[in-house]
Design goal:
The chain is an all-alpha fold and 330 residues long. The protein has one domain. The chain is globular, with a radius of gyration of 20 Å. The two termini are 36 Å apart.
């Protein structure tokens, strides 16, 4: 009988040190936040978990694309477009109808962004150029679909993401579940399925992946399709939280920048081929959590934005240095 092989704990810790560090940072921030406010309970937990959902989804989608060696500057605009479409078609519908429509929108987001990945492959134009152009297309389409904030969805659909039919309350279980499900799903896909391993392979070395028999074009398209699906999820979550659709381009631009910051903080190398969804999820919540902490400290929004930007720059420098050392060692 062959003995079961176990991974030594020190080796596991070395491989996942960054992810563990980000989660510990999140726990530390939550602990620090409890000392800044009179009381910390279910309402605060619900507020943090539900309001971080859109950024978590965007960060997961952006991470998959960047791991594959690309980048998507239109992911925030896709979120806005998905939210606008959802607000229009779900208004005054039943829960079952809104659930079905939500699934269709997620599938549509995957197809739409998969086409973007196909265009990147066929045109050989850098991802950053193609997605910058498509960001304007998606933003314009959102305004066509929903010229001004409005629309709505069913109370049950809002409860699915927020734990409350009105979008506010003390139930944080639903939003926690909605964070864990996509995280576990994509960890499994990226680490255990052929398509996920192909995504890592083309991000690490496209030529080596091709010589190893990986269909680099299909893997690229899949990475963008996954990113589009998560952008659509972010749009649905935003609409469920607020109760309306918001077609403003500025919302999408800000969300895109934060998604890039979240993946860098989460340990995903912008050069591709490296990173984990687990760390990215924690990093997205950390980035969202900075604003409540700074507000509780009495720091004005302008100064808070400067501090947040400075933190992101420092983290990017540390991540870049770590990646440089890793490549030199390799």
């Amino acid at each position: 009988m062959t003995p079961t092989r176990t991974v030594p704990i020190p080796a596991f810790l070395r491989r996942n040190a960054w992810d563990l560090g980000i989660w510990l940072l999140l726990v530390a921030l939550v602990g620090y936040y409890t000392t800044l406010i009179p009381s910390f309970g279910d309402f605060q937990m619900a507020s943090i978990s539900k309001n971080s959902l859109p950024l978590v989804y965007l960060a997961i989608g952006q991470a998959i694309i960047v791991i594959a060696g690309g980048i998507d500057l239109s992911i925030g605009s896709q979120m806005v477009l998905s939210g606008a479409v959802a607000a229009q078609v779900m208004d005054e519908r039943s829960f079952v109808a809104t659930l079905i429509l939500g699934m269709i929108i997620v599938l549509g987001g995957a197809v739409l962004n998969g086409i973007v990945g196909w265009v990147v492959n066929v045109s050989a134009v850098p991802d950053i150029v193609v997605t910058l152009a498509t960001s304007f297309i998606w933003s314009g389409m959102a305004l066509v679909v929903l010229p001004s904030p409005g629309g709505g969805t069913s109370p049950g659909f809002r409860e699915l993401f927020t734990g409350s039919e009105f979008g506010t309350g003390t139930n944080y279980v639903n939003s926690m579940v909605m964070i864990v499900i996509p995280m576990v799903l994509f960890v499994y896909i990226l680490r255990r399925r052929r398509v996920g391993l192909s995504v890592y392979a083309i991000g690490s070395d496209r030529n080596a992946a091709y010589l190893s028999g990986v269909d680099v074009r299909v893997a690229k398209i899949w990475s963008y399709a996954f990113g589009g699906a998560m952008a659509a999820m972010a749009g649905l979550a935003t609409m469920a939280i607020t109760g309306i659709g918001d077609p403003r381009a500025s919302v999408g631009a800000n969300a895109t920048l934060k998604s890039v910051a979240a993946i860098v903080l989460g340990g995903v190398a912008l050069t591709g081929g490296t990173g984990s969804i687990v760390g990215v999820v924690a990093a997205a919540i950390v980035l969202f959590f900075l604003n409540p902490i700074l507000s509780a400290k009495g720091i004005d929004p302008n100064t808070a934005q400067v501090m947040e930007g400075s933190l992101i720059v420092i983290v990017m420098m540390i991540a870049g240095y770590s990646e440089h050392r890793r490549r030199r060692a390799t």
